[in-house]
């Protein structure tokens, strides 16, 4: 199998045959020191923004690694037609990092870490940049491993209120091809929430699915009502209580299956 090497910002990956590409520091180190590839090896380069090419390594030194493009691969190869957005209350421990990796493998396109009323983990402003850099490295690595053309966008952690404001523009449009689903029991117990699969199947020709997953204990009643008031739909995840990371992976996998991406 052709080795895969990320070529991300600040490098620019051209889509021109015979163009030379100087691999950025991280990619060069990966090719030279980790994979120990020789001159003449054909590798797959991807920039995480949709461009993938086959290129031959033509120079490998401690100062630089150069590859010459031989073939431009199909646009967005390995990507789903479904735009999948995850709003995830940050779980405790290392479970969020595990979640980032698995959701990237499944095809999520944007991830919003959120701090809700019941979220235990709160990201200090002084650590926000370092956390974001760590999360981005995880998704970039998972995208490379799963042969995706795109690296998901991981946003900075934000409050529930800020996340809802960010999503309001999309929710207000009321696009029939877009749906926001909240994994939570209905605040009105006399009217049970429909199942996740049922809600996805009801929506025809979906192009965008946004999934909201709460913390341990779920979203508060006021948070659920705020989401419903903005146009989101509450859904049931079944008869068992799922951990936050299990609920997210389940919802994304089911959405992809119903969209035809996971047959």
Number of strands: 12
Structural class: alpha/beta
> What number is the mean pLDDT?
88
Intertermini distance: 24 Å
By CATH, the topology of the largest domain is Alpha/beta knot
Bulk shape: elongated
CATH class of the largest domain: Alpha Beta
Low-pLDDT runs: none
What is the total number of structural domains?
A: 2
The radius of gyration is: 21 Å
**Order of secondary-structure elements:** EEHEEEEHEHEEHEHEHEH
Which architecture of the largest domain per CATH?
A: 3-Layer(aba) Sandwich
Main beta sheet, described?
A: 7 strands, parallel
User: By CATH's scheme, which homologous superfamily of the largest domain applies?
Assistant: SPOUT methyltransferase, trefoil knot domain
Helix content: 25-40%
- Kindly estimate the percentage of residues that lie in beta strands according to DSSP: 15-25%
Annotation field: number of helices? 7
Question: How would you portray this structure in words?
Answer:
This protein is an alpha/beta fold and 263 residues long. It folds into two domains: 3-72, Hypothetical PUA domain-like, domain 1 (Ribosomal Protein L25, Chain P); 83-258, Alpha/beta knot. 34% of the residues lie in helices and 23% in strands. The chain has seven helices and twelve strands. It has helices at 25-34, 95-106, 125-145, 160-173, 196-202, 221-230, 244-258; strands at 3-6, 20-22, 42-46, 52-60, 65-72, 83-89, 110-115, 153-154, 158-159, 178-183, 208-213, 233-235. Strands 6, 7, 8, 9, 10, 11 and 12 form a seven-stranded parallel sheet that branches. A five-stranded mixed sheet has the order 1-3-4-5-2. β10, α5 and β11 form a beta-alpha-beta unit. α5 runs parallel beside α7.
């Amino acid at each position: 199998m052709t080795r895969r090497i990320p070529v991300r910002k600040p490098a620019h990956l051209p889509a021109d045959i015979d163009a030379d590409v100087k691999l950025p520091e991280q990619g060069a180190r990966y090719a030279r020191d980790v994979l120990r590839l020789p001159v003449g090896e054909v590798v797959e380069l991807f920039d995480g923004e949709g461009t993938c090419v086959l290129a031959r390594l033509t120079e490998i030194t401690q100062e630089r690694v150069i590859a010459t493009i031989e073939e431009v691969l199909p646009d967005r190869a390995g990507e789903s037609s479904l735009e999948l957005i995850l709003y995830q209350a940050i779980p405790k421990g290392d479970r969020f990092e595990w979640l980032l990796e698995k959701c990237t493998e499944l095809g999520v396109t944007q991830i919003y870490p959120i701090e809700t009323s019941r979220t235990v983990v709160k990201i200090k402003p002084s650590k926000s940049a370092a956390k974001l850099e760590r999360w981005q490295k995880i998704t970039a690595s998972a995208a490379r491993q799963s042969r995706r053309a795109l690296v998901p966008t991981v946003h900075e952690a934000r409050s529930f209120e800020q996340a809802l404001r960010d999503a309001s523009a999309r929710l207000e449009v009321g696009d029939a091809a877009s749906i926001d689903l909240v994994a939570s029991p209905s605040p009105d117990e006399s009217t049970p929430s429909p199942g996740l699969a049922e809600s996805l199947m009801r929506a025809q020709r979906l192009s965008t699915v946004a999934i909201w997953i709460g913390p341990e204990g779920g979203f508060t009643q006021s948070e659920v009502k705020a989401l419903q008031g903005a146009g989101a739909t509450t859904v049931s995840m079944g008869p068992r209580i799922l951990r936050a990371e299990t609920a997210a992976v389940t919802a994304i996998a089911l959405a992809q299956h119903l969209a035809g991406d996971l047959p």
